[in-house]
Amino acid sequence: MIPGEFDYHSPRTLQEAVGLLQQHGDGAKIVAGGQSLIPAMRFRLALPEVLIDINTIDGLEYIREDDGHLMIGALTRESDLEESALVQQKYHLLADAARVIADPVVRNRATVGGNLAHADPANDHPAVMLAYNAELIALGPHGTRAIPIDDFFVDLFENALADNEILTEIRIPTPGPGSGGAYYKVERKVGDYAISATAVQLTMNGNTCTAARIGLTNVSAVPMRATGAEQALIGKPITNEVLEAAGQAAATECDPSPDLRGSVAYKRDLTRVVTKRAIRQAVERAQGG
Amino acid sequence: MSIGISPYRVDASGKVTGAALFPGDLTRPQLLHAKVLFSNQPHARMVRMDTRAAEAVPGVIAIFTAADVPVNEYGLTMFDQPVLVGVNANGRSPVPSDVSRWEGDQVAIIVAETEAAAAAARERINIEWEQLPLLPDIDTAVRDEILLHPEHPAQSNRYHHYKIRKGDMAAGWAAADVIVEGEYHLPNQEHAYLQPEAALSYVDEQGRVTVEIAGQWTHEDQAQIAHALDLPPEQVRVIYPAIGGAFGGREDMSLQIVMALATWKLHQRGEMRPIRCIWSREESIIGHHKRHRARAKTRWGATKEGKITAVEAEVYMDAGAYNYTTNKVMGNFHLTVGGPYEIPNAHIDSYAVYTNSVPGGAFRGFGAPQGCFVAESQMNKLAEALGMNPVALRLKNCYRENSIGITQTPLPAGVSLPQVIEACAAKAGWQVAGGKWQVAGEESPNLAVSSPPISQSPISNLQSPFQSLPPNPATLRFGRGFACAYKNIGYSFGFPERCEATIELYGAGSVERVVLKHSAAEVGQGTHTALRQMAATAVGVPLEIVELVMSDTAVTGDSGSVSASRMTWMAGNAIQLAAAAAKQEWTDEDRPAIGHARFTPPATEPLNPETGHSTPNFAYGYVAECVDLAVDIETGHIHLLRVVCADDVGKAINPRLIEGQVEGGVVQALGYAVTEELVVRDGRVLNPRFSTYLIPGVRDIPDAVESVILEIPDPRGPWGVRGMAEMPFIPLAPAIAAALHDATGVWFNEIPLTPGKVAAKLRDA
Questions:
Q1: Which of residues 241-260 of A touch B (CB under 8 A)?
Q2: CB contact (8 A) between residue B637 and residue A103
Q3: Beta-strand (E) ranges in B463-604?
Q4: B546 with B592, same domain?
Q5: Do residues B301 and B242 both lie within one domain?
Q6: Residue numbers of chain A with a pLDDT score lower than 70
Q7: Is residue B3 assigned to a domain?
């Protein structure tokens, strides 16, 4: 199909972009990599009156560590994340996810910020950032503010950004000693959305889990944490029974819809399986495996 | 000799550089644009149609409907489909024009100055429909509460029936020591060619209505257009530019007739501008036929020594709304549902049923993949029940020279199936010792059933492409499966078979330039390259001096379709005859020396309606495949580690193209067996795009596909050639099912083997 008609702007600065947002309100949409928005426009699921293309703004593509955080510019391409030595060395959960977001061609264009701002539970970064307890930095007419990831996903395709705010940066706390993470995703074919996937970031003291955050992909209407699974781990030694309990908890607390990827029963069971596998891998990494 | 070597494809550079023009790339000055309106009604009668608001859209030139079609019917094997569904048809076709039987029935073609104007007008055509009872599936349709085609002499939605009555079934069951049975379900499959349907049409300088389009048989397109427009065929011209894949999906009409209709009608009004139409992917998937969904119940008996004694089968095929080639496809299912085996006693009934679903039609394998899945699954179940090696069991029963086929006549000479099975098994790691097929190096006769070790990478290194991390080794299982097949080459059941070729020799003392004129459609398989190689060899000149003039009904003769794995076989024979004629003229000192030939193979026969007795085909190809796979029993994911495909091609004209066909066929069959799932509900395709209909991508394909190319000559094939393009597709699905059983102990009687279905069945088992 042919998209509806729209006006197009390509601002050179963030301030200019925010100005345009202020001018056009909720009739405007920001386009970054365009890998979700353009298909939605083709199907006329999205009919923005104004498109603000931020690809022309300099300084939004970076991956660097600073002040105990990994800072990712919102316009950073998924492929840059995938190739980053820093990410591969210290952010295993993020590295796992970066390799399986869509397919390589999409990853060359798609951006980390877009993946999050789209607030689609089928996307991979929401679960990853929930597990990392990331902060998202937004710029509006009155300056910047930090939004905790737990507050960011409001509803399906709805985030906590105001109409006149733009997402500029993602901050991930640098994992401390004894911590490890993993992303376990299962898809029908390479490049498809997850049938189910689990993001785990945890800290171990010996064989005891002292902290854990777990995010789930594509098994709920809004990106979600598996807090029941987290509780099943925290303060416990990691045994097969504990793993199974955490997997069962995730299977129970998720809320998948039946579709071409599988029935509710299959998705729940798969959530159990991928949660167990992700935890096991995260524990091995935390213990230096 | 220019055959047996692998020169670059004649179309390689154009396709690599982008210079090759596909139908959607074609343009002419002052181009008009067309859109087709689908009914979007699985079953409804049109009460009235109002095009006035659409015609008022600025830029609209004309809108054509059923009332404009001279003879409002078409169909490859029977005229059962209106060109345009609608009111006020002229009544020259017995097919009721006002009923939409499928959501993809076309109701109007809109011609406008721009695509946007045509699209806007399409949305302003007002139609009132009276809903009719929906027949979404076989079970509903066979009740005959309403006839989809009251004009059909069968007077039933179950409109076609084939039988096999061979031997004495009571004696067959009495002789059986073991009996295995199954009910199998086979899905639709979308062709998923890269290039969606598109066409450019105009009236040429000689007054012929001309359509440039991607098809599989220029002269059949020409005949269908001529019939519907009530024109003599020579007033219609069909040209094929570069074609982006076909696989059977372009055998039937898409834009051919409506584009010719619009062009011709506008021409009569003095509007001479050319018209182009390009379908979107969604329009392509909604608008053309699919591989038939089907089911079969069957029961096989065998002695404890492993000789088949009886085969009983009942087959139902969902034809969808129109016949297309269903009667022929079902004939192939019918011939293959007993496998390529000597069966003394057989009782088979096959039925085609009209429904309001997307029509079934030609698709690589043409009924044989469905028949083979049933037959080879039965054969593998027999092997298990008998405790026999699946290779040995096949060799004990398979067709060989002078075998009598299921239709009670001898197979055409040159049956090479035993050699094909042996070559595949040997490559996969079996060998004969002490008269038994067994694992290489293993002496114990007790191991006759076992498989050679699967050449698996260390489990820790097995990177499942479907998962972000390596699978859990504790939940991986490995299995191996075997299957074989036969498939006809060329048209079956008495359908008129022929192929024309013209060869022109230019020069004075010696031949300096050769021109081959031929209609073979280059759909990506490489036929132009192979034909050029055969022409050079037949004339006895270097490849470099052979030029091709292809696929234009104004200058090339009727070649028949590129389908049924027939073109190399048929065209090679025609080229040999044409070359001989041209060389005779050359000797007679005609310049240029022109040889024209029309080759006809031995005649075939329709199936006897009561017994199935016939000589249905004049040639066959033979294939065997062995699959090694890994399955994650918790996630249900299957990953193919290795596929060995042994295919007797008779003579490899171009070995590299053959390997391409093998690998392409295997990947396409992997999609059929595992990843692809067309969801059709209440007569509507719910996933008409590649984000939801999942064809395998480059990361999903088997780790290794090994082609074993055998060259056992077909006595009637040119240089011994056999057809081969469909064969690698056919046995893969049952080989995967067998390997999955080997890995898990569970039989799967249904495809596709999507992760959710596999996991659920394993959990229930």
A1: 260
A2: no
A3: 476-488, 499-507, 511-518, 546-550, 593-599
A4: yes
A5: no
A6: 1, 289
A7: no
